[in-house]
Amino acid sequence: MSRRLNSRLVFLLVLLFVGAAQQIAKEHSPSVLRPGLRMYAYVTNAADGTVTVVDLVKLSSVATIAVGPAPSGVRAHPTRDEVWGVSTEGGYAWVIDARSGQVKARITVGAAPFAVDFSPDGKRAYVAASGSGTVSAIDCASQKVVASARTGRRPWLARVTPDGKRVLVPNREDSTVSVLDAATLATVATVRVAAHPEGVEVLPDSAKAFVSAAGSGNVSVLDLKQPALLTNLPLASAPADLVLKPDGGELYVPSPATHGLVILNTWANEVAEHILVGDAPSRGILTADARFLYVTDAAAGRVLPIEITFRHVLPPIAVGRRPGVALFSPGEDMLLVVNEDSDDLAVIRVRTQSLLTMIPVGHHPRDIAVKVF
Question: Rounded to the nearest 5°, which phi and psi values hold at 255?
Fold first, then answer.
């Protein structure tokens, strides 16, 4: 009798284990991933000169790719099976072939680039070189520079407007924004803004741009039809990030010095609200339906979910040390958070708003992109 009971118990335990394993696999398997496809995250490691490749189905690192000194600005190409980024110390853009996991091109763009942006159709990439005072347009098919132009002093990045007609370049030392024709890189206008501009967000209709000014604690509002400065919106401290609502109606600005989140009304060009969210909120990311905003708190080592409609801050999610950039997996099943000081990638299950796992990457990870291919 005892043996029969033990056999039944073992059988039940096996069934429970198999069921649990299937459920976990189902929760981990992204809902958008079809059979035969891969979904990888690419994490730049600033101190290593490498990119760590993470399989988001198996939740483990699968490769380390040497790309060059001080990699940053990693982006998944919108139409090609490629991942692009720049080597800030090397002065070039690099291109990873996602299928082979090899660097297929290094494209010289000038000294100290920080970021790359793509035209809406994916045919061109744009890179500003901070140390050279230039911006380059790259043909993505040939990986060749097809146009270049002078900008102001220390251009921070190049941002393409949603209609693909203009490239906006904030010049940090000049406190200006260069408005360039996307096809030729000819200067359309140079607009003076608040001190030391860095980040840029553009409304979906390409009518206005919002520029964060790190040196003055302002957000400058630009009319892109003129182009001209509409106003400078004073904040209590330097903005750390700009997160635009999909319909363009609100702009969310993490403010580390005030421990809060500033909410701007983009239609009225005014500061609408300030809410306390953490110790040092640094970066934010919004769900596609604009229901939840997730803010990383660099000082406290956690992520703060905010139900944005009701301005309700939900319980924090503990992650690693100094969380920075965050990115959703396709389908928003997982939130991926780069922990700069603990050298790992936190994976948060969005459905339960809980930490799923921590994946070791390289030294001082800074940025992340996700590619399905």
Answer: -130, 95
